[in-house]
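FAD-binding domain-containing protein structure dump, as promised
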Amino acid sequence: MVENIDLLIVGAGPAGLMAAAWAAVYGIKTKVVDKRTTKIEKGHADGLQSRTIEILHSFGFGDGIYKEANRLQEVCFWNPDGNGVIRRTDRIADTIPKISRFQQSVIHQGRIEQYFLEFVQHPPEVCIDRGVEPAGLEIDKSLIANEDAYPITVTLKRGKEALVDGIGGAEDDSGEESVVGCKYMIGCDGAHSWVREKLGIMMEGAQTESVWGVMDILPITDFPDIRSRCTIHSASAGTIMVIPRERGLVRLYIQLAHLTPARGERFDKSNGSPETIFAAAKRIMAPYDISYNYCEWWTVYQVGQRVANAFAKYDRIFLAGDAVHTHSPKAGQGMNVSMHDSYNLVWKIASVIKRKARPLILSTYATERRAVALQLIEFDRRFSRMFSGRPAKDIADEAGISMEEFKRTFEKGNIFTSGISVKYGTNVLVDSMGKPEVAFRMPFGGLQLGMRFPSSQVACQADATPIQLGDALKSDGLWRLIVFAGEVTQPLAKERLDRLGDALLQPHSFLRRLQQEVTLEPVLVHASSRQSVELFDFPKAFYSKKDGQYDYYRVFADDATYHHGHGNAYSNYGVDKESGCAVLTRPDQYIGWMGEVDDVKGMERYLSAILR
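structure tokens r here:
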């Protein structure tokens, strides 16, 4: 018997669970399968970049993770002096100040997975089935264009428990099989993706000769910066990155320069052990002493830098995470970019399934995320080469790596690795026909088409509560019309806002229908003194709800608060207080359209191409 479902997700790692979180928000019938019988219990990824924490916060559980994680404050650079002895040569902020309200942090991947699992366990539409993997895939091409059809048929097999970190558990070799029919399918099943192989999609790139060991330990050391993120370049023994973890743990990424394989060959991991890895660490950190009594996890890896030549098939089956891009883990991008992939994708799939959006938006996943993956691989090539290279002995040493150049690369890379700098190009979801984006461009905090909407403090008009505007942009499946109305005590600004307010309440207008269907939510931020106006001076569309009740937390003032000062939102966003502007954000908080406050035709033209 075939069970029909909306979405099948293969892989219950961070990318798969992010996909499941969106599925839970939209309430689409979803099955997640994973050959592992448990979530990750130790090791693996641990870095959370600023944009990732913003996303987790928008689902409602980012605060818990952020409090539990270790927030990274500082990066210390250690390089050899003229005598070959490592010295601290510089310090910089780990997270670029003011780029986000959240700092880069580290926490065990298993804890992140647990938060996701708690989020998705209540909706009955989402089922996570472990110890199960796909065994067969069929695609009926004649049904691809039929939105009501289930063109994908997958045979699932419950079999032996996959080894987790080399440790096996109870076995179930029953071979029990089941069949599901799917409207859509996502392969989040890692670098050796079964889904990718079945689709005939190839990985392009190369395996490098760089081999690294990783250890999570409770260190005993006289090294003074063990609780800071550090890069340590020794004169000839290799390089270490130090990452201070939660619970007193420290992660060491240790270059195993003596285990470099021949070009084109794969490293034999059996040659690695905690003893050989830590011996390399002691050589690199000399003359400082380091030892440990507790090692929670270790592994050895060879750096590979590859990107898939396609991210989707028929816009029905998609790949995300390590299934489409692999790279070194030292920049903390693997788990982050993987989650961002499925965060970009699944609201689109769910919107199509729910008949809220047109299927043409599905093609934007491949164009938006493959561009990011290519940028990631290019950055990783530069970063890994400089990280693994021998420090230059002097200015004439062309074979060595300049430590000043390494620091500049690191600083510039921090903008990219934060996830904040991602900018999607023009497509049906990023409209270049609105007001030219240059009028709104500001460093980091400004409003730019194709970039995520940054947060800034505002004051609630109804009760003076200081609120981060980013908190109004929840991951709940809604589009937002964010209106910067300007100085509403001025006649011209009030006229513009009233014209928009009338359009939002017109019974048969497209914008009104979207509000009635709970697809679009208007939000207003004005630049007048909060005490000079009243909530009911504003158009009713900004505080009324479908059921007739009032929502008091969608009208805000860019004004001082009693206890948290002034947020200066207009200044941060680069918005003129006289002319103002209107911004349409997608359900993933990226800016799709910008224009004049009362450009109703522009708003409807953009939205009607996307939404039904």
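Residues 211 and 259 are 7 Å apart (CA to CA).
lmk if u need the other ones
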